[in-house]
Amino acid sequence: xxxxxxxxxxxxxxxxxxxxxxxxxxxxxxxxxxxxxxxxxxxxxxxxxxxxxxxxxxxxxxxxxxxxxxxxxxxxxxxxxxxxxxxxxxxxxxxxxxxxxxxxxxxxxxxxxxxxxxxxxxxxxxxxxxxxxxxxxxxxxxxxxxxxxxxxxxxxxxxxxxxxxxxxxxxxxxxxxxxxxxxxxxxxxxxxxxxxxxxxxxxxxxxxxxxxxxxxxxxxxxxxxxxxxxxxxxxxxxxxxxxxxxxxxxxxxxxxxxxxxxxxxxxxxxxxxxxxxxxxxxxxxxxxxxxxxxxxxxxxxxxxxxxxxxxxxxxxxxxxxxxxxxxxxxxxxxxxxxxxxxxxxxxxxxxxxxxxxxxxxxxxxxxxxxxxxxxxxxxxxxxxxxxxxxxxxxxxxxxxxxxxxxxxxxxxxxxxxxxxxxxxxxxxxxxxxxxxxxxxxxxxxxxxxxxxxxxxxxxxxxxxxxxxxxxxxxxxxxxxxxxxx
Length: 485
What we know:
The protein is α+β, with helices and mostly antiparallel strands. The chain has four domains: 3-155, Schlafen, AAA domain (Methyltransferase, Cobalt-precorrin-4 Transmethylase, Domain 2, 2-Layer Sandwich); 159-229, no CATH class; 235-404, 2-Layer Sandwich (Heat Shock Protein 90); 406-485, Winged helix-like DNA-binding domain superfamily/Winged helix DNA-binding domain (Arc Repressor Mutant, subunit A, Orthogonal Bundle), CATH 1.10.10.10. The protein has 15 helices and 20 strands. The strands form seven sheets. The chain has a six-stranded mixed β-sheet with strand order 12-11-15-16-18-17, with helices on one face. A four-stranded mixed β-sheet has the order 1-2-5-4. A two-stranded antiparallel ribbon has the order 3-6. A hairpin with a 2-residue loop joins β9 (206-209) and β10 (212-215). The longest helix has 17 residues, at 71-87. It is elongated and about 100 Å long. It starts with a helix and ends with a strand. The model has no long low-confidence stretch (mean pLDDT 90).
């Protein structure tokens, strides 16, 4: 227990014993522990739901006099209250304790913190069995108090929740690739367990509860040696499938990733890169064997899929399927309600904020959801067909196509390419013109009517609009996305 918490407990205890001894809303006296744990569970519930928590002080009689505790009493109290805090209430509560000299005797302070997730209630009985401190006593919450508690207490984010049982630091870190994580951070690997724990706690990969530790869901997703060994994470690994042709009739290779996304990301991308379809290009006087798909595009799309997947879906693996003419990257979950397929470009609202933040810190994904933008820029640079976004009932898919000449693109693909180019120009404070779209399609200036036709079809499809409608000269007309102002 830190000194600030200890100082507060002693201050409140002295206040409660001054003049006429009396208990407080955030402090209750006890002389010993009863054989039944029901009342203690109610106290733990009440203090966990109370602002800044509270204290149980053992060694104080009902009249306010001090009674020294025996060593075996202290051990039994700590053991029993620890068990109740872990197994008697939901969500479980991380209590702390300290034996202190007080007025020529000794007392035991049990600190019960206010929890983030409320209401804390008796395990197995439902949230109506939630308690609160009022008038220096513990009582069951009223319906109005329960409703207010629920309103003011958003549940903890999925990434912050526990992924495994409590254990010693060595037991916990044995399940994580700690050295790889520090390497990604660009930090030397610490020489002490305490320094390792401090950094893992700082990045929310593990939590400390009293003298034990637990791995968070974020810790599993980032640095687990094997995600499938954690409950609820058995199908988190990315499934990579290679097909012989452009259909799914025959697979040539398949692998399932099990390592945490961050520490296994480079290995996965390297594995795919070595097996991608390739073709020859002549540059200067030399022939070069190059990948049919730019790796940087695949990297950005896969990273984006990882951080935007719906983590509440436990039974579907993210997938990367490689065909001879395309790559399909599918992640569980549909788009957030505030985002449409057309507006996925430049979205800055990641579904999983903590996961996105640390993946960016580890240089795996772009900041604030800009990975799609980066991928589209590379698609244009390499002259590929536009990305295709597909949303189904329970998943979201991005399709990356192999190089294809303008003449081989369908009318829909040309309109989609026009729209994506228009959005990229708009969000970078540029303007889409006939000339810029010709450059995107790698069409010579003499063939500008071909691009004019695409622009006309995109206007008719309500994907773009004229940005300066009052301009009389068609030479200076530019275009903006249909939703832009």
